[in-house]
Amino acid sequence: MGVGGFLWGWLYDRYGACVVVLFGGLLQGLGLAAASQAQSLPMFLVVYGTAAGLAAGAVYVPLTAATASWFVRHQPRRFPCLGRSGAGYDAGRAARTLADRRP
Known about the structure:
It is globular and about 55 Å long. It has one domain (2-100). The protein has helices spanning 2-15, 17-36, 41-70, 75-100. The chain is an all-alpha fold. It contains 4 helices and no strands.
């Protein structure tokens, strides 16, 4: 997610959020399809970890940029809102992980 953030940030500045999220979704789908064909656990972890990390950055970068742009005039409110949006994003990822582990 960290390395991909530079790429997604550049694409977001150049083309907008729709393009970034679209490519992130396509990358996630391709990564899941490629990971399903892995013949070993290390190969699965490399393929899925790379695709999931890059795709997560494709959602997080537009989320953060949109939140920051909403509070241009109200600077003191910007940073708490950025923190809440980041915490909400991570809480959603954690909830999904817990939901996937249910029997």
